[in-house]
Design a protein that fits this description.
The protein is of the alpha+beta class and 411 residues long. It has helices at 11-22, 42-56, 62-79, 131-136, 184-210, 227-233, 239-242, 255-265, 267-270, 274-291, 300-308, 367-377, 390-398, and strands at residues 31-36, 90-96, 106-111, 121-125, 142-148, 152-159, 162-170, 216-223, 245-250, 296-298, 312-318, 323-330, 336-342, 360-365, 381-385, 401-405. The protein folds into 3 domains: 3-136, Translation, Eukaryotic Peptide Chain Release Factor Subunit 1, Chain A, CATH 3.30.960.10; 142-271, 2-Layer Sandwich (Nucleotidyltransferase, domain 5); 277-405, 2-Layer Sandwich (60s Ribosomal Protein L30, Chain: A). The strands form 4 sheets. The chain has a 5-stranded mixed beta sheet, with helices on both faces. The two termini are 45 Å apart.
Length: 411
């Protein structure tokens, strides 16, 4: 392997690897994590790993000592292929991943992420340190939302493709009718005092929630009555947060339902958001399916057949779809191919597409990477649909994969 053969991983590949690494647990402190920040001298890292190999000689447990030294040696060997730190930095995970006591299975993963590695880190532990890598891919598009009326309020976020309800607050404000023989004037004073206290409480809670969100892009406020305007214009939020208010919308509800309605009614300012883009593409798919105009396809086999015909314009794949891809090489004729299956069928026998032999070497690979590579061959746009939105959940339960066609085909 040469340094030129080492490629930058895309965001989906990194996220899939993170999920895999988080499932691994070392029996002892045998899992090594190394983060090399962008611009750092790679030779310093090589020297550091060499010193750590010497230090590891002092580990009391022979098994742990051997596994740590083997992991560090594997890392040092991998680093020899890097003449300099990659432009975005480098992250290496290596260690004994065998679940059986006394057995050794040293695996290594090298990650050149699409974004710059911000920290330098070395750690030997029972788990791989994935949090810094995860934080690099946190959703950068976050909107704060408040849905309020005189009876209740809810505070939440539109975070990427998901709506998150953080806090619900009920008011103590009574209805407009005085009770217990109170004078109308006195009742109104009490009522207005309770309303003021409610607005202050909502403002304080919202401030505490929003101020800790470093990616807050804007704030949306909604509700069924005029209170939302009074709240937005009053001194209930600090100046820096008031400056982030980008839309006030009329809704039929406050509270949790109001939060969802605010997002739906603020489409003009959220049109570039991942949430609405996903919602619109899934809505389009189901709308065309309902029309039965033969311009949609769904199901794993049917969608892949249409894709390989070049008929799919837009491909939709659920983020957690129960599919896998299996790469194989036939031992009889040498043919190499890839097939897609349900995950539960991954271990079933596989026949060579060329000669029909079942004597094949096979390897399970990322379905999302496989389907994206296939789509690229035909100029097909791919949308990975999350399970976080109602539309995404509906699509996942319906089929998990489907496409909008360029032209009608016989199915």
């Amino acid at each position: 392997m040469s340094q030129e053969s080492i490629k930058v991983m895309n965001e989906d590949e990194v996220k899939e690897l993170i999920d895999r690494l988080k499932e691994i647990r070392g029996r002892h402190t045998e899992l090594v994590t190394v983060y090399v920040p962008a611009g750092h001298n790679i030779n310093e890292v090589k020297n550091m790993i060499a010193k750590e190999i010497s230090t590891a000689e002092n580990i009391k447990s022979k098994t742990t000592r051997n596994n740590v030294i083997d992991a560090l040696s594997k890392i040092l060997n991998a680093l020899k292929y890097y003449r300099e730190t990659p432009e975005t930095g480098l992250v290496i995970f290596c260690g004994n991943v065998s679940p059986r006591e006394g057995e050794s299975d040293i695996k290594i993963w090298e990650v050149i992420p699409p974004r710059a590695v911000p920290i330098k880190l070395y750690r030997c532990d029972q788990v791989f340190v994935t949090q810094p890598l995860e934080e690099m891919f946190e959703t950068k598009e976050v909107y704060g939302i408040i849905a309020i009326d005189r009876q209740e309020a809810a505070i939440g976020f539109l975070r990427g493709k998901s709506i998150e309800i953080v806090k619900k607050i009920e008011s103590m404000v009574p209805g407009k009718t005085a009770k217990g023989g109170q004078s109308a004037a006195r009742f109104m004073r009490v009522r207005e005092g309770l309303l003021l206290a409610f607005e202050k409480e909502v403002g304080e809670v919202a401030t505490e929630i929003f101020k800790n969100e470093k990616n807050l892009k804007g704030i949306l406020i909604g509700g069924p009555g005029p209170l939302k305007y009074e709240f937005a214009e009053g001194d209930y939020l600090p100046h820096d947060l008031k400056q982030k208010i980008i839309k006030i919308v009329d809704t039929g509800y406050a509270g949790e339902e109001g939060i969802k309605e605010v997002v739906a009614r603020a489409e003009d300012v959220l049109k570039e958001s991942a949430y609405l883009q996903e919602k619109n593409i899934v809505d389009k798919f189901f709308s065309m399916l309902k029309k039965d105009d033969e311009l949609v396809v769904y199901g794993l086999r049917q969608t892949l057949d249409a894709l390989k015909m070049g008929a799919v314009d837009t491909l939709l794949v659920s983020e957690n779809a129960p599919f896998t891809a299996i790469k194989y090489k036939c031992k009889s004729c040498g043919y190499e191919g890839t097939v897609a299956r349900l995950k539960k069928d991954a271990s079933l026998p596989l026949k060579c597409e060329q000669c029909g032999s079942e004597d094949v070497e096979k390897e399970e690979i990322s379905f999302k990477k496989y389907i994206k590579d296939e789509a690229q061959l035909y100029g097909t746009e791919v949308h990975i649909i999350s399970d976080e939105s109602p539309e995404g959940k509906q699509f996942s339960m319906f089929s998990g994969i489907g496409g909008i066609l360029r032209y009608k085909i016989k199915q």
